[in-house]
Structures are given as structure tokens and as C-alpha cells.
Records
---
Amino acid sequence: MSNETATTEANSTWVGPSAPQRLNLLRAAKSVAIVGASTNPARAAYFVATYLQSSAPYKLYFINPRATELLGEPVYPSLDDLPEVPDVVVAFRRNEDLPSVAEDAVRVGAKVFWAQLGLWNEEAARIAEAGGLAAVMNRCIKIEHARFHGGLHLAGFDTGVISSKRQLRA
């Protein structure tokens, strides 16, 4: 793995879209492809898929060459196999795999390349942006959608209490 691939957000030169820009990307999207979708309920890719299916207006496409069905929907082996071009391609893959996912997203004509929380690869962002896509990295699409649409409480983040003091446990 090259130093460029291992670049982290803390020492990066790439700057992603602001919160209002991310909101606009999510509002404009009609379809989302999840590359690395998982049938394992313990995986983040599964949890994000269940949230988006139940709480977001997107047509979802799941990409995983080793699965055939997820949450009652077909799973496709690759972005090339989808029946339509997705607006957003969300990557749940290893950091070193992100450039190839970005290349695939560009090739199929997506509008947004989105690397999930914990993923940061500036080469992938450059590939996406050079191909005309917006790039988002190190952001969970589920958390961003919930944040912008008042749904963080669905995952237990919104306690309804605004305080800087530690809460006492009963």
C-alpha cells in the first residue's frame, strides 16, 4: 500500500463537500448502490442498508458478487450489472479497494462516490472528481441522512437532552 493510499484525513490535502453540500447531494439522489453490501446483520453495510430501505426514499441496489438476495432485494455482482445508473455509489470496501470502486462509479456514470465512515483514500477521491463525480469520504450515509432528516434518534443518538453535564444513571 502506498503512502498516498494510506493518507488520513488529518494530514490530507483533499477537502470534501461541506454539510450543506452533502445535504444537497442526498436530496438530489434518487438511487443508491451499496458496494460491499453484506447479508451479515452484524456488519455496518447491513445496518446501513436496513436503515436506507426503511427510512430513505432511495431506490437501493446492493452489490456483492457472493450474495443473491438482501432484505428481499436482488444483489448484483457489480455496478455494471445494475438495471440503471445509480446516483450515489457507497463503498463498504477496504481502503486499498476504493480507487477501483471510484473507477467503476465513474465508468457507469454515477454522480457521487461515497466512502463510508473510517475510509479515506485521496486517490479514489481524485479519480471520482476527475470523472465528474462529487466525492465524500469518511462519512456514514446513514448518519448523514438521519442527521439531515431528524432521524438520529433511530440509532439511539438523539436522547432529547441537551447538556454538557454527565448524566447520572439510575
Note: Helices lie at 19-28, 44-55, 98-108, 122-130, 141-148.
---
Amino acid sequence: MIVAFLGTAGSGKTTMAGSFGRYLEEQGHSVAYVNLDTGVRKLPYEPDLDVREIVTVEELMAEGYGPNGAIVESYDRLLSEVGRIAREILKLDGEREYTLIDTPGQMESFLFHEFGVKLMESLSDPLLAYLFDPEILKRPHDYCFVRFFALMIDLRLGTTTVPVLNKIDLLSEEELNRHKKYLEDIEYLTARLKFDPTMQGLLAYRMCSFLPEVSPPVRVVYASAKDGRGFDELETLSYEHYCTCGDLT
């Protein structure tokens, strides 16, 4: 089973990959780790495949590139290696029960670069966990944004995408329940948006009104890379994704 972690910088992708991998190993599963971040310096896991063996941001900056230019150039150079990287990931997938992919810290360098698209297209039914931070959930239309962004990731990369609210260890029970209500009950969210007089509210209302028609069946995972909450749910979703008798409702 291939599970990839995607999210904005600071969303906890790398920590999640390491912690979830250790959880799976404690459950008796064999796990392979893949690092696709050319700029990371330290990892909480030992990668079985590491793109830093091909190119690093640090090396490119030594050539004269600035930080952003080095990131873009690193994936330009990896693009020619995407076939080989995909084959190595598929080989790991055949040898281990789980292969966890840690994507770049700067999400756009994977999501909007052809390297990320071609790689995901070359893999065998990967499940993608889209991590987002509770800090961005301030107003009703923020929840609409999160649900649609997960759908756009699915559209861009062609992968089944599961929204994962990470860092729930930072939330009170009341805060967590409020997030769950907005994220899971689209009718409730739409009703709240209907009375939002702002242009953002109107746009979100119209979008959420037809979200059930365009969104595939999926459920949100509430997790903490620090204390392990939600790992059992993520494991279950991973299994259901590969099981012909299951779905992600």
C-alpha cells in the first residue's frame, strides 16, 4: 500500500510520515520510507529511497541559486529521473506492506510541478493524505476551502485524496467538535454560509451547495502526529482504499 503525505510547510508531513510509520511497525507491518524533499536536512525516519542522493537544494545554492530557485531547479532535474524513482517506489511497494512517501516541504514544488504529476501517475493506486492545520480554520468559508482544495489535489494528481486535520493535540474537545461539525456536515456548513453577507461567503455558499455532487465519498481524518490519535483511522482508510469491498465513506 502506498500512502503519500502532502500539505503546506509546517503542516506536519514529515513528522506524520515518521510517526505513522512507527505505529504501523508496532502493529507488525513492514514499512518503507521515501523522501522526496530535496531541501530537508533531518528526518525522523531512515529513508529507503531518498532523492537527496540525486540532488539537494544546498548543492544548488552553492552553484549560485537562491532558495526558491534552488527548489524549482531541483525538481526540474529530478523530472528526468521520475521513471526510475517510480520504479524504485513500486519495487519497495512489492517488498513491504506499506510504502510511505514524504513529499516536499513546499507543497507547490510537488503539486504544481510536472515531477509530482508524473510520479503519482506512475504509481499503483496511491492514497494521498492532505494534511492541513487547524490554524487556517477561522471562518465558515475556510472549511469550504479545505474540502475543495482536497478535491483539486485529487483532480491535479489523479489520486484518491483524504483530508487530514493534523495537530488535534493542540485543540480542546469543544474546538475539535466544532471543526468536525463544519467539515463533516455539508448541509450545516452550507446553511451557515447562506447568511454570510461577504463575497467570500457567497462564493463558498455556491460552491458548497454542489460539493456533494462532485466530491467522491471520503471522510475526514482527525489526527495528531505527536500523540498518535487518528492513526488507526488512517490505517483503516489505507486498507479500505486497496480493498475491493470497501469505500471511503
Note: Residues 2-134+160-169+218-244 form a domain with the Rossmann fold fold (CATH 3.40.50.300).
